[in-house]
Automatic annotation (TrEMBL):
It holds the Pfam family Acetyltransf_1. This is GNAT family N-acetyltransferase. The lineage of its organism: Bacteria, Bacillati, Bacillota, Bacilli, Bacillales. Gene3D superfamilies: 3.40.630.30. Residues 2-141 form the N-acetyltransferase domain. It comes from Brevibacillus brevis. It comes from the Bacteria. InterPro entries: Acyl_CoA_acyltransferase, GNAT_dom. The keyword Flavoprotein does not apply. Keywords: Acyltransferase, Transferase.
């Protein structure tokens, strides 16, 4: 069973190890630690407490919720952990829309976005040479309009 919870600084080393394993370097370690400290990071763990993946969500994308990173340990990929993390982010999302992006070459993430009914919202070239960034959006909830109560004159 996958357990998802907000990351603590005690998770930071595991998060950085998993990221380095997937990325191939430790270049994002400081950024990841800052996301944990800011409360923007959630981890997926197994029954034994071992962290097997993480996701970061913030409001850095035009003041909308945005998932810049969804990373699952290579030995635990294709087991639904990424989907569990995405669904959890949808549940805790505080904005009307949730955005994410991935490289066109990341077929697993592209399929996950499609499976979860995210809508492609555009593509940006020149971030990674020869591998465009594809952006997705999902409407999470409709914001309730404030209902004005009638004012009675006295």
């Amino acid at each position: 069973m996958t357990l998802i919870r907000q990351a603590t600084m005690q998770d930071a080393n595991a998060i950085c190890r998993i990221d380095a394993m997937v990325l191939g370097n430790t270049g994002r370690a400081q950024e990841l630690r800052e996301a944990v400290a800011a409360g923007h990071c959630y981890v997926a763990s197994l029954d034994d407490g071992a962290v097997v993946g993480f996701v970061i969500m913030n409001q850095s994308f035009f003041k909308q919720s945005y998932i810049p990173y969804l990373i699952v340990h290579p030995h635990h990929q294709s087991k639904g952990i990424g989907q569990d993390l995405m669904l959890h982010m949808e549940a805790v999302c505080t904005t009307e829309k949730l955005f994410t992006s991935t490289n066109l070459s990341n077929k697993r993430m592209l399929r996950l976005c499609q499976r979860l009914h995210y809508v492609q919202s555009g593509m940006i070239d020149n971030l990674d040479p020869g591998d465009p960034e594809v952006f997705y959006c999902k409407k999470i909830r409709k914001r309730a309009k404030a209902i004005a109560s009638p004012v009675q004159a006295i």
